[in-house]
Amino acid sequence: VNYVGQTATVCGVVASARYAARSKGQPTFLNLDQPYPRQIFTVVIFGDQRPKFGQPEVTFSGKRVCAAGRIEMYRGKPEMIVNDPARLNLDTGQTGSTAAPPSKLTPAQTE
Questions:
Q1: What is the pLDDT along the chain (111 residues), one digit of tens a residue?
Q2: What's the pTM value of the predicted model, to 2 decimals?
Q3: Do residues 79 and 10 touch, judged by C-beta distance below 8 A?
């Protein structure tokens, strides 16, 4: 099943996190289940939205999170851009059956 282009909730452990302050758009990357560059899924928070999240690379590092939004592909990897803190939460196990773990998005992404 391919979820690209769809709105979904994706949960996973933040295996690596980075605030790219000098990059265009000043993105923060939360890489799920495997550290970059082998990440299964990436949650992206751009710099203009970052103040709403505090320091997400610190807050969520090593923790299981769930992000809700539209899944897109970027350089062959699935990602989700999150602009609202209400769409990025620590996973408390209360997400129900609608949350897809990153490893279940498409078989090719686990290679």
A1: 478 999 999 999 999 999 999 999 999 999 999 999 999 999 999 999 999 999 999 999 999 999 999 999 999 999 999 999 999 999 987 644 445 666 665 433 333
A2: 0.84
A3: no
